[in-house]
Design brief:
about 130 residues; mainly alpha; 3 helical TM bundles of succinate and fumarate reductases; 4 helices; about 0% strand; transmembrane
Length: about 130
Amino acid sequence: MKEAVKSQRPVNLDLRTIKLPITAYTSILHRVSGVILFIGIAVLLFALDTSLASEEGFARVKMYLSSPLVKLIVWGLLSALLYHLVAGVRHLIMDTGHGETLEGGKQGSKIVLIVSAVLILLTGVWVW
């Protein structure tokens, strides 16, 4: 019988204790924002269809858009769009050969987070 091989590698399965680099957080947020946009497009298309169906539908959508909860949802969708856009531009810049080093990746991630935060705050002011 074969004896089990003992590995000296550390095993950490507790995801709450793993410290990820900033580049990992920006990558994960980029994927999450893409999923939010995918789902949000369905909601927005439904609202568009309702608003174009009749005058009553337009009035109903207009009434919903004045609700604070709907404004929060719209702001969330716009936030996902803006983050996804800024992170996507970063990827396009990296495709040209800029920011591919470890230090460049960290710097690019910081820039994405700062620019996205500013744009999201400005959008929040615009929506509210």
